[in-house]
Amino acid sequence: MSPLICVRRRLGFNLFGLRSNLQIISESVHHHHLPLPPPLPPCHAVALLLQLVVFTTLTVAVTTCGSDPVNLVFNGGFENEPFSLSLLKPTQDIGFFFQIGAYIPAWRVTKNSVQVVSSQAFDPAIANTSYCVHLNTKGGAGAIQSSDLYTTRKQARYYLSLHFTGQPDGGPLYKAMQVTISEKGIISYTVRHRMFVAQSNPYPSRTPLLWMARQWAFLGTGKSMRLELESTTPGPVGILVDDIQVILDNMLDNGSFEVLTIDFESLTSSILQSPSTALKNWVVNSGSVKLLRGSRFQSSDNSSSVLDMNGNTGGSIITYFGTTPKSTYAILLDIATNPDIAETDKQGIPEQCSTKLEVTVKVQATGKTLLTDLVTSKRKKGLQSNVVKWETVELRFDAETYTNVTIQFASKVGGKLGPLLDNIAIFQQLTTLVSEPNNTAMSSFHRRPLWCTHAWIGVLLVLNL
Ligand SMILES: [Ca+2]
Question: For residue 334, how far is its CA from the centre of ligand 1 (angstroms)?
Fold first, then answer.
Protein backbone atom coordinates (compact mmCIF):
# COMPACT_ATOMS: atom_id res chain seq x y z
CA MET A 1 0.00 0.00 0.00
CA SER A 2 1.33 3.38 -0.88
CA PRO A 3 1.77 5.66 2.07
CA LEU A 4 -1.06 7.98 2.65
CA ILE A 5 -0.39 11.29 4.25
CA CYS A 6 -3.28 13.11 5.65
CA VAL A 7 -2.78 16.32 7.51
CA ARG A 8 -5.81 16.66 9.63
CA ARG A 9 -8.25 19.41 9.35
CA ARG A 10 -11.07 18.52 11.61
CA LEU A 11 -14.60 19.64 12.28
CA GLY A 12 -15.60 17.83 9.15
CA PHE A 13 -19.13 17.98 7.90
CA ASN A 14 -20.97 15.14 6.33
CA LEU A 15 -22.96 16.62 3.49
CA PHE A 16 -24.64 13.59 2.14
CA GLY A 17 -25.23 11.43 5.13
CA LEU A 18 -23.19 8.55 3.82
CA ARG A 19 -23.76 5.23 5.37
CA SER A 20 -21.06 3.49 7.24
CA ASN A 21 -20.46 0.62 9.52
CA LEU A 22 -20.14 1.07 13.21
CA GLN A 23 -19.58 -1.87 15.43
CA ILE A 24 -20.24 -1.52 19.04
CA ILE A 25 -19.44 -3.76 21.92
CA SER A 26 -22.18 -3.18 24.37
CA GLU A 27 -24.13 -4.79 27.11
CA SER A 28 -27.10 -2.92 25.81
CA VAL A 29 -30.36 -4.77 26.12
CA HIS A 30 -32.97 -2.08 25.53
CA HIS A 31 -33.11 0.01 22.41
CA HIS A 32 -35.04 3.20 22.54
CA HIS A 33 -35.55 5.61 19.73
CA LEU A 34 -35.02 9.13 20.86
CA PRO A 35 -38.11 11.30 20.49
CA LEU A 36 -37.88 14.39 18.38
CA PRO A 37 -38.16 17.65 20.28
CA PRO A 38 -41.69 19.13 20.30
CA PRO A 39 -42.51 22.10 18.04
CA LEU A 40 -41.31 25.33 19.58
CA PRO A 41 -43.41 28.34 20.51
CA PRO A 42 -42.01 31.45 18.72
CA CYS A 43 -40.53 33.03 21.87
CA HIS A 44 -38.79 29.80 22.73
CA ALA A 45 -37.50 29.46 19.20
CA VAL A 46 -35.55 32.70 19.64
CA ALA A 47 -34.15 31.43 22.91
CA LEU A 48 -33.11 28.19 21.25
CA LEU A 49 -31.43 30.11 18.47
CA LEU A 50 -29.38 31.98 21.07
CA GLN A 51 -28.41 28.69 22.65
CA LEU A 52 -27.34 27.32 19.29
CA VAL A 53 -25.21 30.41 18.63
CA VAL A 54 -23.40 29.95 21.93
CA PHE A 55 -23.04 26.23 21.25
CA THR A 56 -21.63 26.78 17.78
CA THR A 57 -19.21 29.43 18.99
CA LEU A 58 -17.94 27.11 21.67
CA THR A 59 -17.60 24.30 19.17
CA VAL A 60 -15.31 26.37 17.00
CA ALA A 61 -13.38 27.65 19.98
CA VAL A 62 -12.41 24.22 21.16
CA THR A 63 -11.40 22.76 17.79
CA THR A 64 -8.81 25.23 16.56
CA CYS A 65 -5.85 23.02 17.42
CA GLY A 66 -4.32 21.34 14.39
CA SER A 67 -3.62 18.01 16.02
CA ASP A 68 -5.88 15.30 17.33
CA PRO A 69 -6.63 15.67 21.04
CA VAL A 70 -6.15 12.57 23.17
CA ASN A 71 -9.71 12.77 24.44
CA LEU A 72 -12.06 13.60 21.58
CA VAL A 73 -14.73 14.82 23.99
CA PHE A 74 -14.46 18.43 25.01
CA ASN A 75 -15.29 19.22 28.61
CA GLY A 76 -16.07 15.55 29.21
CA GLY A 77 -15.60 15.98 32.94
CA PHE A 78 -17.82 19.08 33.05
CA GLU A 79 -15.04 20.92 34.86
CA ASN A 80 -15.28 23.95 32.62
CA GLU A 81 -18.36 25.83 33.81
CA PRO A 82 -19.22 29.51 33.39
CA PHE A 83 -20.69 29.74 36.89
CA SER A 84 -19.56 28.82 40.36
CA LEU A 85 -21.49 26.81 42.90
CA SER A 86 -21.29 26.86 46.67
CA LEU A 87 -22.42 24.99 49.73
CA LEU A 88 -25.55 27.16 49.73
CA LYS A 89 -26.23 26.48 46.06
CA PRO A 90 -24.50 23.24 45.17
CA THR A 91 -26.42 22.53 41.95
CA GLN A 92 -27.43 24.43 38.86
CA ASP A 93 -30.25 23.38 36.57
CA ILE A 94 -29.50 23.81 32.88
CA GLY A 95 -32.62 24.08 30.79
CA PHE A 96 -33.42 23.03 27.27
CA PHE A 97 -33.80 26.72 26.51
CA PHE A 98 -31.06 29.22 26.84
CA GLN A 99 -30.49 30.56 30.32
CA ILE A 100 -28.06 33.44 30.71
CA GLY A 101 -24.91 32.23 32.43
CA ALA A 102 -26.16 28.71 32.86
CA TYR A 103 -24.98 26.44 30.11
CA ILE A 104 -22.41 23.68 29.92
CA PRO A 105 -19.55 24.55 27.57
CA ALA A 106 -19.32 22.15 24.60
CA TRP A 107 -22.62 20.49 25.60
CA ARG A 108 -26.21 21.27 24.80
CA VAL A 109 -29.31 20.22 26.65
CA THR A 110 -31.58 18.46 24.18
CA LYS A 111 -34.45 17.35 26.41
CA ASN A 112 -35.99 19.00 29.46
CA SER A 113 -33.22 19.96 31.85
CA VAL A 114 -30.14 18.50 33.45
CA GLN A 115 -28.32 19.55 36.56
CA VAL A 116 -24.68 20.45 37.11
CA VAL A 117 -23.76 19.10 40.53
CA SER A 118 -20.79 20.44 42.45
CA SER A 119 -18.56 18.52 44.81
CA GLN A 120 -20.37 20.37 47.60
CA ALA A 121 -23.27 18.02 46.98
CA PHE A 122 -21.66 14.77 45.83
CA ASP A 123 -18.10 13.67 45.19
CA PRO A 124 -17.42 13.58 41.44
CA ALA A 125 -16.03 10.40 39.91
CA ILE A 126 -12.48 11.70 39.81
CA ALA A 127 -10.73 12.91 42.94
CA ASN A 128 -10.05 16.62 43.20
CA THR A 129 -12.49 17.58 40.49
CA SER A 130 -15.45 19.86 40.99
CA TYR A 131 -18.45 18.86 38.93
CA CYS A 132 -20.55 16.06 37.53
CA VAL A 133 -23.93 16.10 35.78
CA HIS A 134 -27.26 14.71 36.95
CA LEU A 135 -29.40 13.75 33.98
CA ASN A 136 -32.69 14.30 35.82
CA THR A 137 -34.30 17.36 37.36
CA LYS A 138 -37.72 18.21 38.76
CA GLY A 139 -38.82 18.29 35.13
CA GLY A 140 -38.01 14.59 34.80
CA ALA A 141 -35.58 12.87 32.48
CA GLY A 142 -33.20 15.11 30.56
CA ALA A 143 -30.62 14.66 27.84
CA ILE A 144 -27.38 16.33 26.78
CA GLN A 145 -25.58 16.28 23.49
CA SER A 146 -21.91 16.97 22.93
CA SER A 147 -20.53 19.45 20.48
CA ASP A 148 -18.87 17.88 17.44
CA LEU A 149 -16.22 15.44 18.48
CA TYR A 150 -12.88 15.75 16.85
CA THR A 151 -13.28 13.56 13.79
CA THR A 152 -12.51 9.93 14.39
CA ARG A 153 -9.91 8.20 12.26
CA LYS A 154 -11.48 5.83 9.80
CA GLN A 155 -11.23 2.16 10.75
CA ALA A 156 -9.52 2.96 14.02
CA ARG A 157 -10.81 1.47 17.22
CA TYR A 158 -11.89 3.95 19.82
CA TYR A 159 -13.07 3.48 23.35
CA LEU A 160 -15.94 5.49 24.68
CA SER A 161 -15.88 5.49 28.44
CA LEU A 162 -17.72 7.22 31.22
CA HIS A 163 -18.34 7.05 34.93
CA PHE A 164 -21.87 6.89 36.28
CA THR A 165 -23.80 6.20 39.42
CA GLY A 166 -27.33 6.55 40.72
CA GLN A 167 -28.16 9.80 42.43
CA PRO A 168 -28.77 8.28 45.87
CA ASP A 169 -31.53 10.55 47.17
CA GLY A 170 -34.42 8.53 45.78
CA GLY A 171 -35.99 7.53 42.53
CA PRO A 172 -36.41 3.99 41.23
CA LEU A 173 -34.12 1.22 42.41
CA TYR A 174 -32.63 0.80 38.96
CA LYS A 175 -31.83 3.94 37.08
CA ALA A 176 -30.92 3.87 33.42
CA MET A 177 -29.62 6.02 30.65
CA GLN A 178 -28.93 5.66 26.99
CA VAL A 179 -25.67 6.65 25.35
CA THR A 180 -25.63 7.26 21.62
CA ILE A 181 -22.79 8.09 19.32
CA SER A 182 -23.73 9.17 15.85
CA GLU A 183 -22.48 10.83 12.75
CA LYS A 184 -23.57 14.33 12.18
CA GLY A 185 -24.78 16.07 9.07
CA ILE A 186 -24.85 19.80 8.64
CA ILE A 187 -28.35 20.22 9.92
CA SER A 188 -29.41 17.02 11.52
CA TYR A 189 -28.25 13.55 12.30
CA THR A 190 -27.78 11.36 9.30
CA VAL A 191 -27.04 8.09 11.00
CA ARG A 192 -27.91 7.46 14.57
CA HIS A 193 -25.93 4.54 15.77
CA ARG A 194 -27.42 2.85 18.71
CA MET A 195 -26.64 3.03 21.64
CA PHE A 196 -25.89 1.75 24.99
CA VAL A 197 -28.07 1.39 28.00
CA ALA A 198 -26.29 1.47 31.30
CA GLN A 199 -27.99 0.74 34.55
CA SER A 200 -26.76 2.29 37.70
CA ASN A 201 -25.80 0.46 40.81
CA PRO A 202 -29.12 0.18 42.63
CA TYR A 203 -27.57 0.60 46.03
CA PRO A 204 -25.50 3.74 45.89
CA SER A 205 -24.18 5.17 49.04
CA ARG A 206 -24.01 8.87 49.66
CA THR A 207 -20.52 8.67 51.17
CA PRO A 208 -18.70 7.56 49.25
CA LEU A 209 -20.72 7.63 46.09
CA LEU A 210 -20.30 4.31 44.30
CA TRP A 211 -19.18 5.42 40.88
CA MET A 212 -18.94 2.77 38.18
CA ALA A 213 -16.97 2.87 34.96
CA ARG A 214 -18.11 1.51 31.64
CA GLN A 215 -16.52 1.53 28.24
CA TRP A 216 -17.48 0.51 24.77
CA ALA A 217 -15.46 0.02 21.62
CA PHE A 218 -16.47 1.39 18.25
CA LEU A 219 -14.84 1.96 14.90
CA GLY A 220 -14.03 5.44 13.73
CA THR A 221 -15.77 6.53 10.56
CA GLY A 222 -13.60 9.41 9.41
CA LYS A 223 -16.53 11.71 9.97
CA SER A 224 -17.66 14.10 12.62
CA MET A 225 -19.61 12.48 15.43
CA ARG A 226 -21.64 13.51 18.42
CA LEU A 227 -22.46 11.92 21.72
CA GLU A 228 -25.81 12.03 23.42
CA LEU A 229 -26.62 10.95 26.94
CA GLU A 230 -30.29 10.59 27.68
CA SER A 231 -31.85 9.65 30.97
CA THR A 232 -34.44 6.91 30.64
CA THR A 233 -35.33 7.14 34.30
CA PRO A 234 -38.65 8.84 35.01
CA GLY A 235 -38.98 11.32 37.84
CA PRO A 236 -36.66 13.82 39.45
CA VAL A 237 -33.83 11.47 40.47
CA GLY A 238 -31.72 9.70 37.86
CA ILE A 239 -28.13 8.98 36.97
CA LEU A 240 -25.05 11.07 37.64
CA VAL A 241 -22.42 11.03 34.86
CA ASP A 242 -18.83 12.19 34.80
CA ASP A 243 -15.46 11.84 33.06
CA ILE A 244 -16.66 11.08 29.54
CA GLN A 245 -13.88 10.13 27.15
CA VAL A 246 -13.46 8.96 23.59
CA ILE A 247 -9.89 7.81 23.08
CA LEU A 248 -8.04 6.09 20.26
CA ASP A 249 -6.83 2.56 20.99
CA ASN A 250 -3.15 3.40 20.73
CA MET A 251 -0.97 0.28 20.40
CA LEU A 252 2.32 2.14 20.84
CA ASP A 253 3.90 2.43 24.26
CA ASN A 254 5.34 5.80 25.31
CA GLY A 255 4.57 7.58 22.04
CA SER A 256 4.40 10.85 23.95
CA PHE A 257 7.92 10.48 25.44
CA GLU A 258 6.66 10.90 28.99
CA VAL A 259 8.29 7.81 30.53
CA LEU A 260 12.02 7.52 31.09
CA THR A 261 14.05 4.45 32.04
CA ILE A 262 16.19 6.58 34.32
CA ASP A 263 15.55 9.30 36.84
CA PHE A 264 15.13 12.51 34.91
CA GLU A 265 17.11 14.39 37.53
CA SER A 266 20.12 12.20 36.74
CA LEU A 267 20.23 13.52 33.20
CA THR A 268 22.99 16.08 33.00
CA SER A 269 21.68 17.44 29.73
CA SER A 270 18.43 17.52 27.83
CA ILE A 271 20.39 16.15 24.88
CA LEU A 272 20.23 12.39 24.46
CA GLN A 273 23.28 11.27 22.54
CA SER A 274 23.13 7.98 20.63
CA PRO A 275 23.13 5.26 21.68
CA SER A 276 20.63 6.06 24.40
CA THR A 277 17.80 4.07 25.92
CA ALA A 278 16.71 6.81 28.30
CA LEU A 279 13.29 6.99 26.66
CA LYS A 280 11.22 3.93 27.51
CA ASN A 281 10.49 1.78 24.44
CA TRP A 282 12.81 3.88 22.25
CA VAL A 283 16.46 3.84 21.27
CA VAL A 284 18.23 6.95 20.08
CA ASN A 285 20.20 5.20 17.34
CA SER A 286 21.99 7.99 15.54
CA GLY A 287 23.03 11.58 16.17
CA SER A 288 21.30 13.16 19.13
CA VAL A 289 17.85 14.35 20.11
CA LYS A 290 16.65 16.82 22.72
CA LEU A 291 14.14 15.92 25.40
CA LEU A 292 12.20 19.03 26.32
CA ARG A 293 10.47 18.55 29.64
CA GLY A 294 8.36 20.60 31.96
CA SER A 295 6.35 22.36 29.30
CA ARG A 296 9.40 23.99 27.71
CA PHE A 297 7.20 23.95 24.63
CA GLN A 298 3.48 23.44 24.41
CA SER A 299 2.99 19.72 23.89
CA SER A 300 0.43 18.45 21.43
CA ASP A 301 -1.44 16.37 24.00
CA ASN A 302 -1.26 18.34 27.25
CA SER A 303 1.67 16.24 28.37
CA SER A 304 5.00 17.28 29.83
CA SER A 305 7.56 16.26 27.23
CA VAL A 306 8.16 16.82 23.56
CA LEU A 307 11.14 15.65 21.54
CA ASP A 308 13.25 17.88 19.32
CA MET A 309 14.70 15.48 16.77
CA ASN A 310 17.85 17.58 16.66
CA GLY A 311 20.09 17.64 19.71
CA ASN A 312 23.51 18.92 18.74
CA THR A 313 22.69 17.75 15.26
CA GLY A 314 20.00 15.67 13.58
CA GLY A 315 19.16 12.43 15.33
CA SER A 316 16.90 9.42 14.97
CA ILE A 317 14.90 7.19 17.27
CA ILE A 318 13.72 3.65 16.69
CA THR A 319 11.23 1.30 18.27
CA TYR A 320 10.13 -2.29 17.76
CA PHE A 321 6.54 -3.14 17.06
CA GLY A 322 4.68 -6.43 16.80
CA THR A 323 2.30 -6.74 13.87
CA THR A 324 -0.38 -9.12 12.72
CA PRO A 325 0.29 -10.41 9.20
CA LYS A 326 -2.01 -9.17 6.44
CA SER A 327 -2.92 -6.15 8.51
CA THR A 328 -2.62 -2.49 7.71
CA TYR A 329 -1.42 -0.09 10.37
CA ALA A 330 -1.63 3.66 10.64
CA ILE A 331 0.99 5.76 12.33
CA LEU A 332 -0.17 9.09 13.70
CA LEU A 333 2.44 11.60 14.68
CA ASP A 334 2.28 15.21 15.74
CA ILE A 335 4.95 17.40 14.19
CA ALA A 336 5.87 21.07 14.36
CA THR A 337 8.81 23.30 13.63
CA ASN A 338 10.78 24.38 16.65
CA PRO A 339 9.41 27.82 17.59
CA ASP A 340 12.91 29.02 18.40
CA ILE A 341 13.68 28.89 14.68
CA ALA A 342 11.21 31.68 14.17
CA GLU A 343 13.23 33.81 16.56
CA THR A 344 16.53 33.21 14.83
CA ASP A 345 15.26 33.39 11.29
CA LYS A 346 13.87 36.88 10.85
CA GLN A 347 14.56 36.82 7.12
CA GLY A 348 12.63 33.66 6.50
CA ILE A 349 15.44 31.71 4.92
CA PRO A 350 13.76 29.09 2.74
CA GLU A 351 15.76 26.17 4.10
CA GLN A 352 14.52 26.93 7.58
CA CYS A 353 10.92 27.56 6.64
CA SER A 354 10.10 23.90 6.86
CA THR A 355 11.32 20.97 8.83
CA LYS A 356 11.71 17.42 7.61
CA LEU A 357 11.28 14.09 9.29
CA GLU A 358 11.81 10.71 7.68
CA VAL A 359 9.65 7.84 8.83
CA THR A 360 10.80 4.34 7.96
CA VAL A 361 9.20 0.99 8.72
CA LYS A 362 11.29 -2.12 8.10
CA VAL A 363 10.89 -5.81 8.66
CA GLN A 364 12.93 -6.58 11.74
CA ALA A 365 14.32 -9.88 10.51
CA THR A 366 15.23 -9.00 6.93
CA GLY A 367 15.46 -5.22 6.81
CA LYS A 368 12.94 -5.08 3.99
CA THR A 369 11.39 -1.63 3.80
CA LEU A 370 7.61 -1.52 4.23
CA LEU A 371 7.29 2.24 4.40
CA THR A 372 9.51 5.23 3.91
CA ASP A 373 8.13 8.71 3.84
CA LEU A 374 9.49 12.21 4.21
CA VAL A 375 7.15 14.30 6.34
CA THR A 376 7.49 18.02 5.84
CA SER A 377 6.02 20.62 8.16
CA LYS A 378 6.08 24.25 7.13
CA ARG A 379 6.93 26.86 9.66
CA LYS A 380 3.83 28.78 10.64
CA LYS A 381 3.53 32.37 11.64
CA GLY A 382 3.23 33.46 15.23
CA LEU A 383 5.08 30.56 16.81
CA GLN A 384 5.94 30.86 20.48
CA SER A 385 6.92 28.37 23.12
CA ASN A 386 3.27 28.14 24.15
CA VAL A 387 1.92 28.36 20.59
CA VAL A 388 3.54 25.50 18.72
CA LYS A 389 0.83 24.88 16.10
CA TRP A 390 1.11 21.12 15.98
CA GLU A 391 -0.31 19.17 13.13
CA THR A 392 -1.08 15.48 12.95
CA VAL A 393 0.21 13.39 10.07
CA GLU A 394 -1.09 9.93 9.23
CA LEU A 395 1.05 7.30 7.49
CA ARG A 396 0.09 3.75 6.70
CA PHE A 397 1.96 0.54 6.12
CA ASP A 398 1.00 -3.01 5.31
CA ALA A 399 2.51 -5.68 7.54
CA GLU A 400 2.34 -8.18 4.67
CA THR A 401 3.41 -11.55 6.11
CA TYR A 402 5.54 -10.16 8.92
CA THR A 403 5.12 -10.08 12.67
CA ASN A 404 7.91 -7.77 13.81
CA VAL A 405 8.89 -4.41 12.39
CA THR A 406 11.13 -1.53 13.34
CA ILE A 407 9.81 2.00 13.11
CA GLN A 408 12.30 4.82 12.85
CA PHE A 409 11.86 8.58 12.96
CA ALA A 410 14.86 10.56 11.71
CA SER A 411 15.48 14.27 11.41
CA LYS A 412 16.38 15.38 7.90
CA VAL A 413 17.51 18.88 8.79
CA GLY A 414 20.84 20.04 10.19
CA GLY A 415 21.59 22.29 13.12
CA LYS A 416 20.42 22.26 16.69
CA LEU A 417 16.74 22.98 16.03
CA GLY A 418 14.89 20.20 14.30
CA PRO A 419 11.38 18.89 13.96
CA LEU A 420 9.42 18.68 17.19
CA LEU A 421 7.74 15.32 17.67
CA ASP A 422 5.05 14.28 20.14
CA ASN A 423 2.06 12.03 20.67
CA ILE A 424 2.85 9.19 18.27
CA ALA A 425 0.10 6.60 18.04
CA ILE A 426 -0.28 3.41 16.04
CA PHE A 427 -3.54 1.66 15.35
CA GLN A 428 -4.49 -1.34 13.31
CA GLN A 429 -7.00 -0.62 10.61
CA LEU A 430 -10.04 -2.75 11.29
CA THR A 431 -13.09 -3.53 9.26
CA THR A 432 -14.89 -5.26 12.08
CA LEU A 433 -14.50 -5.30 15.80
CA VAL A 434 -13.63 -8.58 17.38
CA SER A 435 -15.59 -9.25 20.51
CA GLU A 436 -13.31 -9.06 23.47
CA PRO A 437 -13.72 -9.25 27.20
CA ASN A 438 -14.61 -5.93 28.70
CA ASN A 439 -11.80 -3.85 30.13
CA THR A 440 -8.98 -5.70 28.42
CA ALA A 441 -6.30 -4.36 26.14
CA MET A 442 -6.83 -0.93 27.56
CA SER A 443 -3.82 -0.45 29.71
CA SER A 444 -2.45 2.26 27.49
CA PHE A 445 -5.81 3.92 27.41
CA HIS A 446 -6.79 4.20 31.03
CA ARG A 447 -4.54 6.08 33.31
CA ARG A 448 -6.72 5.11 36.24
CA PRO A 449 -7.80 1.64 37.24
CA LEU A 450 -11.33 0.88 36.23
CA TRP A 451 -13.68 -0.94 38.47
CA CYS A 452 -17.20 -2.09 38.18
CA THR A 453 -19.48 -3.63 40.72
CA HIS A 454 -21.60 -5.49 38.20
CA ALA A 455 -20.84 -8.38 35.94
CA TRP A 456 -21.81 -7.17 32.52
CA ILE A 457 -22.51 -9.30 29.53
CA GLY A 458 -20.92 -8.16 26.32
CA VAL A 459 -23.01 -8.33 23.19
CA LEU A 460 -21.48 -7.62 19.83
CA LEU A 461 -23.73 -5.47 17.72
CA VAL A 462 -22.85 -5.30 14.07
CA LEU A 463 -24.85 -2.54 12.51
CA ASN A 464 -25.03 -2.33 8.76
CA LEU A 465 -27.33 0.60 8.30
CA1 LIG B 1 4.54 14.31 25.24
Answer: 10
